# Entry
Amino acid sequence: MVGEPGTRRTEYFLRAAGELHKPVRFVDWQTAGGMEFHGDVVKLDPPSYKSSDLFQMKDHLTSFHQRMKQLEKAGAIFLNPPCEILRLLDKRQCKEILMENQVSVTEMLEEKIENTEQLIDAMRRHRIYSVFIKPVNSSGAAGVTAFRLAPGRDRMTAYTSCILQKEELVNTKKLRRMENAQEICRLLDAVLSLGAVVERWHPKASFGGKSYDLRVVWQFGKCEFVVARCSSGPVTNLHLNNSPLAFSDLGLSEEVTCEINALCEKAMSCFPELRMAGIDVLLERGSLKPKIIEMNGQGDLIYQDIFHENRIYRRQVEWMAQRAAGGDR
# Structure
């Protein structure tokens, strides 16, 4: 296991291995770049960064790409190969691959938009007045901004967890609402300068007065775990003090559940070397038709699982042990 010491990911993966009596060697990301893993079965967890400045994070991501490409040549059998993790990390590339394979996804504006002026022009041309702006290589809602523009007027509203402080674009753990047009434009210029995708803001299904989407962990050919992420605002990531809800509590019909499973299976088939992915799924308000929001090749940390059965990591350990013994399943 390549990861960071002292994190929940590391603690609970190694705990699963210990309970199953399977030996796992832990390798710190700090030393993993130049190592060789000939014949080893390897799981790559994401590194953690102390900086909350998204401008600095862009440099960290460049370093992450370089290290992943080094590891690609390390001679390992990977749970998820580095090249596939990187393909999913690139939100634009991932969504383009899904669209090419007729997978239902939230709509993405095709043109590359680099500043607020271009953004507003594109929104008016497409008659799309509510969008999400997402740094193309970010995760965990870093830099994600929900933006509304009143048609025919300059009135704007934005929701985001990042703030501009002097020369830094700082990611926080609190969602804030902005209405000052000048302040919003400065923020959007900063986010768009990182390289971003712009997507239509689709109305989500609601439960108990809150909108929600789903984080599906799909691994080894089946749905392993689903948690609903409920929010009073537009951004549902759980670390922003949003509310998790057991999938069963939603009371969805068997038909809708089957549609979600079929959609995730089709999405995974677009990346045949992936054994696992965290898949964010939106259910359209009213119809409950599922759409893929995005995918994450390292999106398997679910607190609602690790603090109970820890079955996601247990299943990964079992698969890795099977591969190490010369089998595959």
Notes: The chain has ten helices and 15 strands. The chain has a mean pLDDT of 91. Residues 54-72 form the longest helix (19 residues). The longest strand covers residues 168-178.
